[in-house]
Design brief:
α9 runs antiparallel to α10 and α21 packs across α22. The chain contains 26 helices and 15 strands. By secondary structure, the chain is α+β, with helices and mostly antiparallel strands. β14 and β15 form a beta hairpin. The strands form 5 sheets. A 6-stranded mixed sheet has the order 1-9-10-8-7-6. Helices cover 45% and strands 13% of the residues. Among the domains are: 347 residues, no CATH class; 110 residues, no CATH class. The chain starts with a strand and ends in a 9-residue tail after the last helix.
């Protein structure tokens, strides 16, 4: 699971702690002179990420990073297709227009660029936060004229056989211009009488497949398959895999893209340390066969690789886009460890059993032997697919509950992502929603540090905690279904909130005043979960994104079941005020006990009732107020990151003799370079 600094994690809309980085991290003064916020496109900020420690890697580590970086880039079309059936075609249409602008009407070209920026950030026509479609300005006719002009200048559009460029635009037009055609990528709570799978535009299920069809159907390729229905109404899986002719395994969906990924992972093997090499070989095997056993072997090998400086996540991972919460979205992440920041997060991991023993839920749901938690602070080099440009601030993997219990997990904090967030985010939004100067001062004093701690406890302690009841073994998502991801994120949040006020953090040297710090942390969580996050929901009256549902549920449940939070109004503005931090912690512990019981016992009905009551619907009038207050602040709702540019320098034989790092300072430049439509600068 990941903690979404997809700007909706603990760091949401506030300044988060400036984290150090391995190697030559620039100082605060120098960092403030760097260009972080590059541009705005509506409510999205485009922010540059820096990776100063890359130059300290040795040559083999740089070579390894280069091939892993390329593997992350060449697999992007998988995720584009998962979010939208014509995603790659839309991307190619937009980018060909942008790279053949001569003679194109300037207004149409600007409409294309504006839409393309959203598309690149969101990896689809659909907003990363709201799941709703972004619509292009202008008309289909104007776009067709522009495409015809660009084709005359050499543009090569993704036309079907026998299709004209006008026909291409008409075919893609409903996705670009019609807000009512496939309006949402993921719908977990559809209107009455509608099915979540049919209402969602994501491509994990074929035409006519409904949620009820899965009763009694067992998926062999649960994480990595598209499920379709034949003429007789029977379900069949189409696995996502490259295939392995030597073993008689036929190719499946995404074979072309996975072949390109596997080529780069294979080129990385000679430069990988032994533990990393074993994990990469296991992942290559999984990509070829698609088998659950091979995916589990990869997860186990990846968790066992605890000490290598360079790491990667390249697989089908998170299940948030799937309305059932089963199918894995593809992502690619490449990183290296930040040793200067490791002490904080590793200190939590080393005491994981103490935290498990002091959970406020039933002893039968506690792990008697917490195993294999690996905690690190990393700098990312690149994140693609489901991982970027909108990025998490923390990650805890693998998601397979059985492997986590028997082999452990890795928790990481993304140091340079947090740094870029911090340097590009003003504190104005925080102060706007603070009730008084005392609350604002507490936030100024504590929130940077407590955000860091909360994120780390969420990942290291939260996701790694708890166990299933003996009569409900295996994957809890099977029992909790569409509410599982939100429930698990709530559980990890609540673990962090519960321990934030514990004297153990002072004993570990993490906080000198847990009481004061915890109040500031609770206030920040309530401001965000109860009010500030609503600014991202410009339409409708319900939340679909799991992290947003999780936080709204936690705040509303605590508000309804205690006197810890008061709703106040002043000058027509609403505020949520934490009036009793001790009561907040106590009731957060009660909610954690409830959530753990629901997860451990697989109580689907209780999970559904919890979120239907507290975590789905919101007051549109309150949302409108929040949006109006933000409009005066001119603060981005969320951020898309531009990652470093790597360039491989080769000798006359083609061998890599160095890999250099530079910074594009433009999302458009990066995306066009990645697709090969713009050449990167030469060194």
């Amino acid at each position: 699971m990941n903690e979404f600094g997809k700007q909706f994690g603990f760091a949401s809309l506030v300044c988060v702690g400036l984290l150090g980085c391995s190697g030559a991290r620039v100082g605060d003064g120098e960092a403030s002179k760097r260009k972080y916020l590059l541009e705005r496109v509506d409510d999205v900020g485009i922010v540059q990420v820096y990776a100063d420690g890359f130059t300290n890697l040795n040559l083999d580590q740089k070579r390894l990073v280069w091939h892993l970086y390329r593997a992350a880039v060449v697999g992007r079309d998988i995720y584009l297709r998962q979010r939208c059936e014509v995603g790659p075609e839309i991307r190619d249409l937009l980018e060909e227009l942008l790279t053949h602008p001569d003679g194109v009407d300037p207004i149409t070209l600007e409409n294309v660029r504006h839409y393309a920026l959203h598309f690149w950030v969101d990896n689809s026509p659909y907003n990363n936060i709201t799941a709703r479609k972004n619509v292009m300005a202008g008309s289909m006719e104007e776009l067709a004229i522009a495409a015809d002009v660009a084709e005359g200048r050499g543009a090569r559009f993704p036309k079907a056989p026998g299709e004209s460029v006008g026909g291409l635009v008409r075919r893609l037009g409903p996705w670009l211009f019609d807000p009512d055609f496939q309006p949402m990528v993921t719908v977990k709570t559809p209107e009455a009488g509608k099915d979540p799978l049919e209402a969602s535009a994501c491509t994990f299920y074929g035409d006519g497949v409904k949620l009820a069809d899965f009763e009694g159907f067992t998926e062999e390729f649960g994480l990595n398959s598209t499920v379709v229905k034949d003429k007789q109404g029977h379900l069949h899986e189409q696995p996502w895999r490259l295939g392995d002719p030597r073993a008689g395994v036929p190719a499946g969906l995404y074979a072309k893209e996975l072949g390109a990924v596997v080529d780069e992972l294979t080129r990385a093997l000679p430069f990988a340390p032994e533990a990393t090499r074993r994990a990469l070989e296991a992942q290559i095997r999984f990509y070829r066969t698609g088998l659950r056993a091979d995916r589990e072997a990869y997860d186990i090998a990846w968790v066992a690789d605890k000490d290598s400086v360079v790491d990667t996540v390249n697989s089908f991972v998170e299940v948030y886009v799937d309305p059932r919460g089963v199918k894995g979205a593809w992502e690619g992440i490449v990183s290296y460890e930040d040793p200067k920041k490791a002490a904080l997060i590793k200190g939590l991991a080393a005491n994981a059993q103490w935290f498990e023993n002091h959970m406020p839920y039933e002893e039968r749901f506690r792990k008697p032997d917490v195993r294999g938690i690996s905690a690190r602070s990393i700098d990312v080099i690149v994140e693609t697919g489901d991982a970027g440009p909108v990025s998490a601030i923390g990650i805890n993997l693998p998601n397979d509950a059985a492997i986590r219990e028997s082999h452990g997990s890795k928790s990481v904090s993304l140091a340079n992502i947090v740094e870029a967030n911090t340097q590009s985010s003003p504190p104005a939004a925080r102060d706007e929603f603070c009730w008084d100067a005392d609350e604002s001062e507490r936030a100024e004093r504590w929130v940077a540090l407590t955000n860091d701690l909360l994120t780390n406890m969420h990942e290291v302690i939260g996701h790694a905690s708890g166990r299933q009841a003996d009569d409900k073994p295996g994957d809890p998502a099977v029992y909790i279904k569409e509410n599982y991801s939100a429930l698990e994120e709530a559980r990890a949040d609540l673990v962090a909130l519960w321990f934030m006020g514990d004297a153990k953090l002072k004993e570990l040297g993490l906080l000198d005043d847990p009481a004061a710090a915890s109040r500031a942390a609770y206030e920040n969580y309530v401001r965000n979960g109860g009010l500030q996050q609503l600014r991202r929901m410009a339409h409708g009256d319900q939340l679909e994104e799991d992290h947003m549902r999780n936080r709204l549920m936690v705040v509303r449940w605590i508000q309804a079941n205690s006197k810890a939070i008061e709703e106040r109004e002043r000058d027509g503005k609403h505020f949520l005020r934490v009036v009793d931090a001790d009561a907040f912690r106590e009731v957060a512990g009660k909610l954690l006990a409830l959530v753990q019981r629901i997860k451990s016992t697989g109580d689907y009905a209780a999970a559904k009732e919890l979120f239907d009551t507290y975590g789905v619907r919101f007051d549109p009038a309150l949302r409108d107020e929040v949006i109006a207050r933000y409009a005066k602040l001119d603060v981005p709702a969320y951020v898309g990151f531009v990652f470093p540019r790597l360039t491989a320098l080769r000798d006359s034989t083609g061998a890599i003799v160095n890999v250099t790092i530079s910074y594009p300072l433009s999302l458009e430049t990066q995306m066009l370079e990645w697709s090969g439509r713009r050449a990167p600068p030469t060194n």
